[in-house]
Amino acid sequence: MTHVTDVLTTLQGVAQRRELIARGATGRQLSIAVNQGHVFRPRKGWYALPGTPSDLVRAVRIGGRLACVSAARHYGWAVQERPGLHVCLAPNAARLRTPLDPRERMSAPAPHGITLHWADRVPSEPLTRLVTSPRETVLQIALCQSAELAVAAFDSFLHLDPDGSTELDLWLLDLPETILAELQDCTALCHSFLESIGRVRLAHAGIRGRHQVRIAGVGRVDLLLQGWLVVEWDGLEHHDNGPAHDEDCRRDAELAIRGFRSLRFSYALVMRNWPLVLAAIRAALAGHRP
């Protein structure tokens, strides 16, 4: 079943029967591929390769496209890690199914952990196949998520695509003014979800600094305040192992030698105990430079 699996591979691992037939597959080949376990049917009229990302399969099974923060995660943007699936449905979507069983109809409202978004009745761009477009994703996040979570995702989009700032500005103009007013300026300088969250929260507190500053003998630091206080945001993805911890300690020592003071904050502290983080930064700034 090389032909069927090859075609599916070019279609992100999941496709409708008509797409496969249009690319030369036959009904008999599809049946054989299913019987031999080379592909499976996530939903009537759909075929997928084993190993296809589960979020894509679940969105197709429901009857829509991956959307909002689920689409952002698929694109590699920085979003908060938490369970749940966001799916965008066509205006005329019907026969919705639960994400785990294509035979079970989805009841209203959607089950816990499933957030449904509805596409515009007159879309401003051609609808994408499996995942909402970057523009759709940006607008869905802005309307669905808190302002700080939205800014973190947009910062990440700009970091991955520095030339996308003009597009992002144009997309955001489609938002209601009340939503747009809540969004901080986005920047490609923030390299992680935690860094963006810290930037937004410190800005609300009236504290601004320079991001991703290079210091000789140390490398880039996440945030430099008043030219001497270094703040590092230690997300789990880069700091939760022995060698990374050793490197962090070395950097802190090098900073001390060069007359800087450094503060480090973990994901748990930033997301669950922000008042403590803010108090520590304010106390350090109120003290004397080393």
TrEMBL record:
Domain DUF559: 225-285
InterPro entries, alphabetized: DUF559
Annotated Gene3D superfamilies: VSR Endonuclease
Pfam family, one: DUF559
Identification of the protein by name: DUF559 domain-containing protein
Source organism: Cryobacterium fucosi
